[in-house]
Protein 1
Amino acid sequence: MTLDNPTPQKNSFWSAPVRILRRELLPLITDLRLAIILLLVIAAFSITGTVIEQGQTLAFYQANYPEHPALFGFLSWKVLLMLGLNDVYRTWWFLALLILFGTSITACSFTRQLPALKAARRWKFYDQPRQYQKLALSAELDLETRNLASLPNLSQLLQQRRYKIFQDTEKNNLLYARKGIVGRIGPIVVHIGIVVILLGGIWGAMTGFLAQEMIPSGSTFKVNNIIEAGPLAQGQVPKDWSVRVNRFWIDYTPSGGIDQFYSDMSVLDSQGKEVDHKKIYVNEPLRHKGVTFYQTDWGISAVRVRINKSPIFQLPMASLNTNGNGRLWGTWIPTKPDLSAGVSLLAKDLQGTVLIYDSAGKLVDTVRTGMSTEVNGVTLKILDVIGSTGLQIKADPGIPIVYTGFALLMAGVVMSYFSHSQVWALQKDGCLYIGAKTNRAQVAFEREVLEILDKLSLQQKDKEEPVAV
């Protein structure tokens, strides 16, 4: 009685899946047509994510993408949310497309580009004249028996053109030369760059977040109002440090328009000590520990007033609906202790002008900050109009990876322009056989080979001419 050997069973168990992977799945993944289709699909959905507003509220999509009539007859807010077109770059199917495309590029590199590079690095001498006739460029030169220096002359000419020379040390009649091997490495670097970009995009989608805050001047805050976040984004949200808006102000043009708005900001550690400081404005953000604070909006948060000789009151101001006729903020100030009477204060900017209306909606006075007015039998003094800064806060750990991928991609494209040129030579039976080929720039390579042959022929003639005595 014999016991079965488990090893053959194990090998037979795995042989079928491996065979299917190699014969059916691998050729499909490495197919250039599949990679092109995936790239076009990714580009199409990326354009969709640019055209369709991303990360907006449900009310926004219901208002802009109604069911009746639906955009293009089918694209309503329900379809948009169901397909995830409101957040394209974080959907599972978009990430799956990126992974599949990266897998295709990686498999192509291992099955095609790396073997091509290995083949280019492997070389052999051609020691038969008939082998030269099969090359793209070939020539045969007759040599005199006394002219044994033709092969060294050819080697010297090739070295002058930066070819790497390999010669047969035994027979000393064979030569192989090449240059531009970097051109074979270029496509591999391009593929690596694409894969790194995809990995950076996936990592950024998984770990990044986007937040928005409207912070009054002089306030300290932590990031709380997160709009978008990846499943692994919690580690990127600041927890042990905060930000203080020291001051917010707006520069106006002579005509009264906004020229630029600024926020003077300080980063505070857990003990309240300042560890970073910067004045930010549009296109000049604050960056700290991978989190970027962009200046994107502004508003009016409060007004500081005094009634007669009362303490200073800071009353919040709310944004009013003007039906698209500019921006306006307002608040109500009681002028009697029982709140039975009061006035409304309106402001449209931070230039310090405040409009005062009575309960009947009649304009009572126009006051600038620092000035007083008499209303309802009391003295109302406007001390200050406090602005608020609108910040967009973003963290994307994948950006350095993406930039690295783009650098590799550009370097690989430049490397791919180098031609991989090869030259073989055989000196045999009074003849010099020369053959050459290249993978690109065929016309320029032909000119180079002809110039080498012309110089070699001139050297032969110079050696054959008699010397006058």
Protein 2
Amino acid sequence: MVVAPGNLVCNNCKNKLVHIKEPICMKCGKQLWQDGQYCYDCSRKHFSFDRGFALYNYNEDIRKSIIRFKYKGRGEYAKYYGMEMAKRYGDFLRIHHVNAVFPVPVHTKRLEQRGFNQAKLIGDILCENMGLASLDGMILRVKNTVPQKELDDVGRKKNLEKAFQPNKDFILSDKVKNVVIVDDIYTTGVTINACSKIIKKMFGCKVYFLVLAIGRGL
């Protein structure tokens, strides 16, 4: 499809991406399909992060888009995704005094294979659009984990044990108030929760997250 001048995506593709709509889980941002303030996961689990949001409901179209973005070299998708995050959730970040973005890190081996960290590309656009500081490199992924989608809940937790650690050589250029973690997909929240715990231990601040897609809430 032809992309109109000034646009980053054609209307046909844009219309296939299903935005999250109210009501949403007050913790992870999943769209809710029944009464209540929290999805099933968040009502029975404790998460370290304060609150999170997603742009889209996870469906086949956003799945294919993310695959092209991550594995087919379509890094330019990050500009559209990052600008959409800023447009949709910028006011929330400003109101809650978020001044720093932390993109979920990938292991060096995976970075070499892929050529880029998709979360960093999105986070960079968010920083540019909102004047936020980037905390990329502040926490390292020291364990080359198996993809979370291949595991059950117990396996995901075990998979991420000691997977992240603070980078002792990282130097902060600005004082951190509150932080937003950026990633592509939220499944069970284990990855974002692991990063949130470290960030809170480092700064004692509020930690939020933004992702491209999230599964169906119950």
Protein 3
Amino acid sequence: MDFELPEELKMLQEQLRRFVDKEIIPIERDAYEGPDMKPEVRARLSEMTKKMGLWHYGTPVEYGGQGLGMLARVIVWEQMGRTIALPTRRTQIFGPEPSFTLFMLNERQKQEYLLPVIRGEKKNCFAQTEPDAGGDPGSMRTTAVRDGDDYVINGYKRFITAAKWADFAQVIAVTDRKKGVHGGISAFLVDMNTPGVKIVRAQPTMMDDEPYEVAFDNVRVPAWKMIGAEGEGFKVGQTWITAGRIRHGARALGVMERCLEMGASYAKQRVTFGRPLADRQAIQWMLVDSYVALQGLRLMVYQAAWKWDRGDDVRYDAYMVKMRGDRLSFECADKCIQIHGGVGLTRELPIEKFWRDQRSMMITEGPEEILKTVLARRVFELYS
């Protein structure tokens, strides 16, 4: 067993760490304009990533990208997680980021949707969550009914990130209510300017995000725009969300690393009752607990990414790293606030945003209660 990163990934890790420390952290409180990055900041950082050879880092080589595997992506996500300067759920400075599901398209679909995304000509969003179907896709009410050469979609989606700017959506809908998630859910490419598609409202959140509610009223979609075969939509959605859950774990590593850096540094500087906080056992234990949690989580996340790159089934690994990463990083940010006292509550420091963001992560892309329920079934399969 070799727990060392390959030399090229060590170099990537160090390169990105220097980039974040030198170029991004110093501007992180001035990088935003509303819920998004300032265009000039994004443009400047994007030029730097191009020079670093990381433009389109996750896009396969055959499509003009760098073709980095999942472990390399984890290194990128981890280092970017150390700063609040970048949007929490998308980095935006490494070029367009096609979702894993877009590479599942057939050739005709790739020409119309994937390649324009890679070229930066189109943007997309993923529309699965509904008011009554968040962590339970089996309760989905949005339907897609076959009508000649089309499917007619009716329904309502909620918390759809980037819907306002998207040219098309990957929409998950029910095609056979009786089959449910076992062959009754399908995925479609839906142009956002199709008659019947309406962005109803923005939903500002405590994380500074602004997802949207989207209505579909008798939206006609040509049958050739179905992703995969009818009934494969749940699998399409799970491919997207499994990668997303590994990303949760990777981001959590970056958050924890930054909070440890800030917490340990402040504890040495801050003096109370004639002694630095670093001398207080209560403070020491907070930092040690966070450090131990970080080391354990890193092994889990790296292993999940390594297994992905081997082609293994990593669903359960993704459940675990998402569940543990989100909670541990939230707890680490919480301890970091406590160490800083009143100043930790201010927006002069990034800790409060880490705290808000990581609290939200414990709900999005699978709340831990549902993940634990699924993992419980796995435990009984393995041990009874």
